[in-house]
């Protein structure tokens, strides 16, 4: 019953996010074009072709996903591990990533965490991973308590209490609020971005992640 209610809430937020995503997409395309001359971005040219091939799969529960139209490298984006050690998306090289930025004060974020956890449990960790980065200011205790209370066990406890990753993505035109979710290829190149929540354990999400790999 609780799961159905959660899906209903996410469904309402997704409907609004689909409209907002179309608007936000123009900004994302514009900014990524500005960065296309960057050397790292230039190495991501193949990701644009890959993103184009994903477009037929962007439907249903993930219809608001905006495929990348310009090369953008996200490999240098940094955050912290559970122990407080710094890491980057480049450290996950070799795996397709679904990078989710969330906070406990964000109601849509809280609602989609169980679905992200189920998605994480369905993936082959050698090929793909869900990287959910918490942006709560201060220590991770509140976020950890929330994840424990909701039975989330498959997501790593990544964090960025200074919101550096969000601010960097905002400057790139790729983040406007929470949740923000990025589909990233095995070389750290952007494949797509979604502004708002989704039913991430839906078949459409699994299909696009599999195709991205």
Automatic annotation (TrEMBL):
Q: A Gene Ontology CC term for this entry?
A: cell envelope
Q: Where is the Thioredoxin domain?
A: 39-213
Kindly list the places in or outside the cell where this protein is found, as annotated in its UniProt entry: Cell envelope
Which Gene Ontology MF annotations are present?
Answer: disulfide oxidoreductase activity
Q: Which domain of life is it from?
A: Bacteria
Keywords from UniProt, A to Z, are: Cytochrome c-type biogenesis, Disulfide bond, Membrane, Redox-active center, Transmembrane, Transmembrane helix
Q: What is its main location?
A: other
Q: Which stretches are transmembrane?
A: 12-31
In terms of Gene3D superfamilies, this protein maps to:
Glutaredoxin (3.40.30.10)
Q: Name one GO biological process term.
A: cytochrome complex assembly
Q: Which PANTHER family does the UniProt record give? A: THIOL:DISULFIDE INTERCHANGE PROTEIN DSBE
Protein's recorded name: TlpA family protein disulfide reductase
**Source organism of this protein record:** Methylobrevis albus
């Amino acid at each position: 019953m609780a799961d159905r209610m959660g899906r209903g809430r996410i469904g309402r937020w997704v409907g609004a996010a689909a409209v907002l995503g179309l608007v936000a997409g123009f900004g994302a395309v514009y900014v990524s074009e500005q960065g296309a001359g960057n050397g790292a971005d230039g190495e991501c040219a193949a990701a644009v072709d890959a993103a184009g091939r994903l477009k037929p799969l962007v439907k249903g529960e993930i219809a608001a996903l905006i495929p990348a139209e310009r090369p953008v490298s996200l490999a240098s984006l940094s955050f912290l591990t559970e122990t407080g050690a710094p890491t980057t998306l480049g450290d996950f090289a070799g795996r397709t990533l679904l990078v989710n930025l969330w906070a406990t004060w964000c109601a849509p974020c809280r609602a989609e965490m169980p679905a992200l956890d189920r998605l994480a449990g369905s993936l082959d960790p050698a090929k793909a991973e869900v990287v959910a980065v918490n942006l709560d200011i201060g220590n991770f205790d509140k976020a950890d308590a929330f994840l424990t209370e909701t039975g989330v066990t498959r997501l790593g406890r990544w964090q960025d209490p200074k919101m550096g990753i969000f601010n960097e993505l905002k400057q790139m035109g790729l983040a406007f609020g929470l949740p923000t979710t990025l589909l990233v290829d095995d070389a750290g190149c952007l494949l797509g971005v979604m502004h708002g929540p989704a039913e991430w354990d839906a078949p459409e999400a699994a299909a696009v992640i599999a195709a991205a790999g």
